[in-house]
């Protein structure tokens, strides 16, 4: 059993922020269509809420990355475990993750998605653990900045547990 130490953001606080982010996106892309690329597994819950609050036409696809090596180094080896199926060339793409930590995953995926020649590419992240950043990645649509604590819930796991928690909570950092 993993210890929940503190609730950082409750359900209501999260959904208000997600709605704000969706409104900003809808305004910025008014008259256009966007393709959301959701980074599995962690962004599944966030993406489901975000897309339901976006008022312009939206397509969604999923990518899954796997990383090998120490999670604390930027030299981590990242590979794509499941690629997108949508043809995104000439489309407006938003890469969606729930949390940016070292930035390596997002940085790698930005490069891979760019190779597919989208008309534009921006990033969305609900949580920004900025003090941990090793790779400087842009977050065009940021949610909350959080301290260097290990969080679970709202899609985020600790050893695959707690993804279903409706709030975002701090747990003791796993070994
Ligand atoms: P990065 O490549 O170091 O930015 O790591 C990004 C990924 O690490 C996220 O998509 C999450 O899957 C995972 N991650 C980073 N910090 C946390 C956390 O506090 N809780 C749960 N997962 C995390
Ligand atoms: Mg995880």
Structural class: alpha/beta
| CATH class value | Alpha Beta
Q: Say how many strands there are.
A: 9
How helix-rich are the residues, as a percent range? 10-25%
Q: Identify the bound ligands.
A: inosinic acid, magnesium ion
**Main beta sheet, described?**
6 strands, mixed
- The CATH topology: Rossmann fold
Structural topology:
Layout (H helix, E strand, L loop, with lengths): L3 E6 L1 H18 L5 E7 L3 H9 L5 E11 L8 E6 L9 E9 L3 H11 L5 E9 L12 E5 L4 E3 L15 E4 L4
Parallel strand pairs: 2-3, 2-5, 5-6, 6-7
Antiparallel strand pairs: 1-9, 3-4, 8-9
Helix pairs in contact: 1-2
Bound molecules: inosinic acid and magnesium ion.
Commentary on this structure:
It is a single chain. With 175 residues, the protein is an alpha/beta fold. It has one domain (11-147): Rossmann fold, CATH 3.40.50.2020. Helices cover 22% and strands 34% of the residues. The protein contains 3 helices and 9 strands, in the order βαβαβββαββββ. It has helices at 11-28, 44-52, 104-114, and strands at residues 4-9, 34-40, 58-68, 77-82, 92-100, 120-128, 141-145, 150-152, 168-171. The chain has a 6-stranded mixed sheet, sandwiched between helices. Helix 2 (44-52) links the parallel strand 2 (34-40) and strand 3 (58-68). Helix 1 packs across helix 2 (44-52). The model has no long low-confidence stretch (mean pLDDT 94). Inosinic acid (IMP) is lined by residues 39, 42, 97, 99-106, 129, 150-152, 156.
